Amino acid sequence: MELIEAITGRRSVREYTTETVDEQTISRLISAAVRAPSAVNEQPWAFTVVRDQKLLDHVSHQAKSHMRATISGSPHAGHFQSHLDNPDFHIFYHAPVLILISAIAEGPWIVEDCALAAENLMLAAYSAGLGSCWIGFAQSFLNTPDGKTALGLPAPWISIAPIILGRPKANPPLVSRQEPRVTWVG
Ligand SMILES: Cc1cc2nc3c(=O)[nH]c(=O)nc-3n(C[C@H](O)[C@H](O)[C@H](O)COP(=O)(O)O)c2cc1C
Question: What Rg, from alpha-carbon coordinates, does the chain have?
Fold first, then answer.
C-alpha cells in the first residue's frame, strides 16, 4: 500500500468484530511504531498490550467514573457528558486489543515522541487491514494510581496514547477536515 493511501484512508474505527489480533501482527505494528523519530533518539516509549476483555471492561467503567468526577470545567464537558451518562457506552468500543503507549523517561518531548509512534502504529494497522482509534477518554484514568495498578504500569510511567485495534465491522465514512491555514512567508 502506498503511504499516501494509508494516510488518506485511515479512519478512527469505533465498531469491531470479535476477531482477535495475533501476536505476530501486533509485534509488526510495534516495530513500525518504533521507527518513528524521537528527540535525541531517546525512544522514551513502552507498549502495553491488553487483550483481556474483562480487564478492558473494568478500565472502561473506571475511566468513565474518573472522568465524571473530574470533567467539570473541561471545554468539551457538554459533548462528553451524554457518553459518560450512557451505561452502554464502552470507551474502548469492545475492541479486541488495546495498545497503550507510555512514556518511560523524563524529557521535554516525550509526548511528541509517543504521539509520533502512535501515528506510525495506526497507519501500519490500516495497511494491515485493521482499524484503530486513539482513546483519549482513557488517558487521565490510566495516569492515576488505580489506573496504573489495573494495567500493572510502573508508577513513573506516563500514559500517552491508548490505541484500540481490531478488524473493523465496516469502514467508517471520511471525517472532513478544515482548509489548512497556511502562511507562505518569503
Ligand atoms: C488525542 C486524541 C484523542 C482521541 N480520543 C478519542 C476518544 O476518546 N474516543 C473516540 O471515539 N475517538 C477519539 N479520538 C479520535 C478522534 O475523534 C478522530 O481522530 C477525529 O474525529 C478525526 O476522525 P478520523 O480519525 O477518522 O479522521 C481521539 C483522537 C486523538 C488524536
Answer: 17
What number of other Cβ atoms are within 10 A of residue 173's Cβ?
7
The protein residue whose alpha carbon is closest to atom 10 in ligand 1 is: 135
What is this structure's pTM? 0.97
Q: Which CATH architecture has domain 3-71+85-166?
A: 3-Layer(aba) Sandwich (3.40)
Atom 4 of ligand 1, residue of closest alpha carbon:
136
pLDDT tens column, 154-181: 999 999 999 999 999 998 999 999 999 9
Strand 158-166 relative to strand 131-134, pairing? antiparallel
18/35 Cα distance (integer angstroms):
29
Distance from the alpha carbon of residue 11 to the mean position of ligand 1, in angstroms: 9
Is-contact 46 117, C-beta < 8 A? no
